[in-house]
Structure formats: C-alpha cells, structure tokens
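request received
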Amino acid sequence: MMTYVVRRLLSMVVVMALVALVVFIVARVVPGDPAAVMLGSSATQSDVDALRRQLGLDQPLITQFAMFVRDILTGNLGTSIFLNQPVLDAIAGRAQLTLLLAGMSITISVLIGLPVGIISAVKRGTALDQGVIGGAMLAASLPSFWVGLTLIEYLAVKVHWFPVSGFGPPGASLWEHIYHLVLPSIALGLPNSAIIIRFTRSSMLDVLGDDYIRTARAKGLGLGAVVIKHALRNALIPILTVIGLTLAVLIGGTIVTETVFGLPGAGNLIVSAVLRRDYPVIQGALLIISGIYVCINLVIDLLYAVVDPRVRY
Amino acid sequence: MLTLKAPLFVAAAIACSAFGTPFGAEAKPAGVLTVAIIGEPPSLDVMSTTVDLVSTISQHIFETLYTFDAQWKPTPLLAAAPPVISDDGKVYLIKLRKDVKFHDGATMTVADVQASLERWMKTSPRGKQVAAILDSLSAPDDSTIRIALKQNYAPLMSLLAFNNGAAVVMPKALATNEGPLKEFIGTGPFKLLEHKPDQYIRLAAFADYTSAPGAASGYAGKREAEVEELRFVVTPNAVTRVDSVLSGQVLYADSLPTEMLGRLKGQDTVKPVIIKPFAWPFMIMNNKSALTGNVDLRRAMQSALSLPDMLMAAFGDPQFFAVKGPFYDKDTPFFSEAGARGAADPKKAADLLKKAGYKGQPIRIMTSTQYDFLYKMSLVAQQNLQDAGFTVDLQVLDWATLVQRRNDPNAWDALFTFHTFVPEPSLITILNPTYAGWWDTPEKNQALAVFNGEPDPAKRAAAWGQLQAVFFDQVPTIKVGDFYSLAAASSKLTGLVAAPWPFFWNVSVKP
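response:
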C-alpha cells in the first residue's frame, strides 16, 4: 500500500509539471496584455510598454519560464500582477470560502442523493421511482445560475431570510460565513445531488440483482439490513468515484455560482485572472487545483480498499 | 431640589462642550454606507491608471489642488484660490490652503504638493501630457507652488482638477518612493481602513478632515463625511447588484444594465439614478490603415451608419441615450454644434465609396461582448455598412485581446469602444496622435494648438468649436452619440448627487 501511495505521489509531480508547462504556454499565447488591462483604455502604448518592463513581461518567454520554474521549486508561486500580493496569499485568502462552500454543497448533495438513490433502487418500477428519475433529470438540467437567482429572488429579496451575496461583513464569525453560504450551497448541491441519485440508483440496482442478496433475503434478513449492510457497501465504489469527482469540481470550478452570489472563491479568482491576463495567478491557481484533483483521486482510490477488502494495492 | 450631583453634571457638560467633538458641532458620522461596485480596482493609486473605478473610490481618500463644480469649471479644493497666471499664460502661481491634515496626522506642506506633482508627471498618462511642456516646478514660498510651462497650455487647470489619472496630493515620503504605491494616505474626507481584494474596500470617516469652503456644487465646495464607514463591495454580477440594493444589503448599486430599470421603478425602498453625462460610444478609425486611412472611405462609412438605430439597439430605452453630434451640452462651457453631421445618407455613402476607389476589401472591425451595448451597436453597424456596399469582417473579441490588438496598426481598420465623459476636451484620448487611431493631420494639429494655447475661456470655447468641426469633417472616429448610466440608490440615502464618478461625501443614511 505504501509503495502504491509513493508511486501515485511521484506521478502527481509529473502531472503537475505538465500542467505548469501547458498553462504557461497557453496563457502567453492567448492575445491580451495585463499591463493594458491595468492601465485602462486611456493609456498610450508607451505607458503600457513602461509597465510591461516594470513587471518583467518584456523578457523573452524562455526567461520568464525559467524564472517561473525556479520560483516553483522554491515554493514561490509568484506575485499577482493585478492584486499585487503573493499568489499563495491570494489563494489562501479564498481557501476558507471555497472549502466551506465545497463541503456544504457536497454534504447537501450526498444527504439528498444517497438516500433518495437507495430508495429509488429498492422501489424500482414504482411511481416513486419514476418520480425520482424525473425529478433527478429536472434537477440535473437546471442551470445552477438560474437556481441561484431564483433562490435569491424568493428567499433573500422578497422575505430577507438569507443575504443576497457576499461571504459576510468584515470580522464575520464562522457561523456568519456559513449563513452566507446556505443559498449558494443549495444552488450547487441540488444539481449535483441529481447526479449522485442516478449513480446510486444504478449501482444499487446492479448489486440488488446479485444472488447473494437474494440468498440473504431468503434466509430472512430484513430489507434494511440487506440494503444498508450488504448491498450499499458493495455498491459504494462507483458512488465514491462520482462523489470524489464532484468534490474536485466544486473546489475548482464553481465560477457561475460564485459570480451570482458575489463570492470571492477560487473559481472567481481564476476566471478574473484569465480575463485580466494575471499570469502568475493563472499558473499558480491551476497548479494547486490540479494538485488537489490528483490528491482527491488518490484518496478515493485508497477508500476503495477500505470499502472493498478485495481491493489491494 | 438641587443635589450635589447637579453642579457636577453641569460642570461635566461644560467641560465636554469646551473640548467639543472631533467633528465639530455637527452630528458625528453614523452608519455604514455600502456600495456595490462592478469589480476589483487594479489599484488604489489613482495617479497610475485611468480606470474609472479607481477614480470613484480614490477620490474619497485623495484630493487634488482643484476640482470641478456643477458646471464643470475648475474650482479650488486644496488650493486656496484660483491660480495667478502670468500675462503670457506660461506661469501659474497656486496658493495652498493652510492646516490641511493628512490621514496620518501630519500637516500638508508645499514640499508634499511639489513631490506629488512630480510623481504625477512621471506616472500618470494625464501628468505626462504636462511633463512634455513643463519648464520648471518649484515652491517660491512655503504656501505657493509655481508651475512654469514652455508654452501656453490652457488644459492645465482641468488636468489639475480631473479625478482620473489624478494629480492628487500625498505625503512627500510616499510620493518620492519608487514603484507602486503601497500606502494610501491622503487628505480626503475618508481614510483607507481595510482592503480585501475581490471582496471589499473599507473607508472610515476622517475625524480631522477640513473641507474646502463654499457651498457644495458638483465635486466642489463643502465635503463632509456623514457616515462612519464607506464600504465598496465587489459584486461583478449586475443582477446580484440589483438584488443587493433591493434587499437592502447595499445602499447603492453602481453600473447597472439599462434593462434593469423596470425592476427599480415603483419600489418604495429604492430609486433609480440616471447619470448624465456619462460617456460617448465611439467607432474609432485606424487612420494608418490602407482602407480607413482614406478620408473619403471614412466619410462614406459615416454616411452609411444609422446612429439612432445603433443607439436604440445598444440601449433599448431612449432615456439612456441621445442622438447627439456635439460632444458637450448646451449649459456647459464647451457647447458647440460646429460640424455635427445629419442623418444617414445612403446615396452620399455610395458616391463617397466610389470616390474612395473601394474595391470590396474586408473592413476589419473589432468589437467585444464584454460591453454588451458595444456588441449590439456593432451588429447594426455591420448591417448598415453591408447595405451600403462595404464588405465587413466583424471580429468579436474579449476585452483584454481588443485592448492589446488596438495598439497594432496592422491588425484592424475600425473598433468599437466608449469614452467616459471628460469635462475638458483636450482629455479626449483620440486627440492624442499616439493613441490608437493615430489621428495626426496638419488641420487637426493646428486647431488643437490654437485650442490648447488660448487662455481666454470664451475664445477657448470657440476654438473647441473649430476643432470639433475638423473632427466631424475628417472623421478620425465616429461619435455614435451620448449614453447615460443607470445606478440604484436606497431611499435611506440623503444628499446623493448623481455624478459620472459617484461620490459619497455629504451623503447620510437615515436610520
């Protein structure tokens, strides 16, 4: 197992090196100039050139790449051109929000998705099952921005139960932050719960059709014990995979929900950096997110071994 | 019956009133005024950038020697009086106000002002215009600044008054530091409290602020921080900004799409604010291009375009635009109708196209969906031009790409952009021959030199009319019209004045 973990961590280094190279090249090949964006439309070309020199953007690409690699190897992801702060600080400043939002959203998705998927599988073919399938399809089709705007309109603007946007006032406590993330978590959790419902139902149906389940029932074991103790555990592997992938996407890619709710999370940081051509942030943030993706995949793979004793590395 | 406590109470009251409060006899500032803004400003260093958002925020922290009143006339702010100008118009003596405090408690001195102006001339796109013609900058005494120019330059006062790329005053120690500004200490009614990028910028009322004298008029006159905290909250999504102000989470929402007007009308708690003047949409021509470098072709394009249709497509509601040729309105110093063109004339367009010898080469026009209104008007323009016989290659780009390509004269023939209203015509970027578009003709340079060199305001207005006439004749850029901006303000706000760079001094929040 330890050898497997070490091998996977080494491959993570290779993945991240490739990500660094691709992101560096793509960011610079795409037209657009961070200096021009910063100075505004009234700046002349000489103003832009002066700022480019100041920021080191006039250096040859190979020099810029060498400096980038040198910085990474010393744990330095550079300084944001736009925010004028270390990239690590910019990311760390958004980590609490992103992790909280991802955690709350995946909790909602799992709390809805898992039980509903199990019930739907057990009650296969019934009106309840059909209703769940239809509902899941509807929930998966709903764009998260529409869900978000609807929640804002009815629960924030009309009845003031929740705030419209933001992560909380200055000096907000953890509970105030959580309060501000309730609506965005629902907006994200609902469509994702539909995916978990479908996967859970499908995986459970595969397992519930197996001989040992029929045998357990024939021997008099209660439905609950059969479903939860025997079937679910065997059905968990694909479900864990989709939960893991969903969590990874929530950490790096919730820009639409962040924009609707005015949340300064990681998605917002990356998209703003792309629009502003803030190269250090684009590079640093994508490197970290690719690392998180790899780690989450590793954890999921290791969980397989916990859930299924037949899986050994 | 009087007790021992009464004399003590009276004595305490007298003692308190003798000391007064830091804000004088007026009520202390109260409440938090939250403003939803469109995005994160690139910096709070208002000298180094012309991004309007930076001006909106920084004007509360920093002040200039002069500012604009409601009629857009330069008026003393940190200066004590209008400048004394030499007979030849080349030397300006500016007397400074006394006892003006910086946010760090120090008193503003002439050395601070001189160092700030030197930094402005080195870092600001506006200041560099002045640096090019500066002879010397000195302080003949401890309350006077002397600006000596190599030539007569009438825009100087407006440049000193403008809050964009602004000649703000900061402590000498900050002004003489190389590199980007790291501390933001000014003389304004608010001081910087906290800045969390992509979240908020908090400004606190400055207890020792001393206002310029006179009644408030535009940006000029009395300024008072009537709220304890001014908080700019970054809210990039326009619908979220509207929802925030409707729910009361913020008290002012800036830069709203005009189609949101319907949601704001008829509300008890919120009122729409229409800001005029605001900006001019431009179709800038590349005067270096083989195609649009031909004046007859440009005139043909101008005749082909239906400006009312373009504006209606862009803004939808006539409340938010005007089909107007002249740059300035009737009650302003620079109003002139000289040269303004009439309606579209397809026959004239066809004749001019023939005269230009146009053979159907594609006209490359850049536009962007970043500004929805520019994209919509460019679609109408494309149709108008095609109907007139042009071949159009409409290139839809993201804003950062457009801004970069704009500086390459080989990459485009025309582009859609907009120009925020400026109170001084010489600040219009396309008059600068090095600005993208590269309008550089003898007639324009001559008219601009006359305009910039004329010290008499009345004659200057006439000189602007002549320059405007050259503009409409040579068509270096097509001014599509005027457009206005929509914002929303809570009914709890009192004292708010609609302005292109909204300001929040003299504004209070009803409990």
